[in-house]
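Researcher: Let's continue the batch. This sequence belongs to Dihydrofolate reductase, and it's 197 residues. Same format as the previous ones, please.
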Amino acid sequence: MSKVIVDISMSLDGYMSASQVSPDEPMGEDGQRLHAWAFNGNDERNFEALANAVGGVGAIITGRRTYELSVPWWGLDGPSGSRRTPVFVLTRSVPQNVPDGGVYTFVNTGIDQALTEARTAADTADVCVMGGADVIQQFIRAGLVDELSIHMAPVLLGGGIRLFENHVANHVGLESISTITTAEATHLRFRVLNTQA
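Model: Same format as before. Here are the structure tokens for Dihydrofolate reductase:
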């Protein structure tokens, strides 16, 4: 069966977006620094980390807020661009302005249904849960995440949205799979053991 992975960039102080998130600044003020490793670095190890994290992804799950902030940048094709990986958006209601011919499916029946639909679309490929923080926490609390892939950017944002701000679960055990350190980020991959530590 395919794996469910969480793949996210995060500051050293635990923020997955900076303060003052807005439609013009979906990552918050100067929040794009969290993703600089993927676009601006010349170190091949950054591209290797990106390929390892999302290369085998056949479907993506995200929340409504992430969708609304990101769709102007993603467009019809979603975050994977020309690969057109299907994106399943957890929401209470379908937004009115959905791009025609887009890769988006809106699921209002919870994370289990979103995962079922994403696994069907992904076939044997992995499913990536990529935000926001509340959606990621729901998947971890439910014991549905197999791997965490965290790209730790060398910055202290001092505010914004923390990935693990709220209580996630009681003692989720992790096993380190790999660590790649570059000037732009430290790429951490963990297997989620889903056991009480």
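Researcher: Any comment?
Model: Residues 4-196 form a domain with the Dihydrofolate Reductase, subunit A fold (CATH 3.40.430.10).
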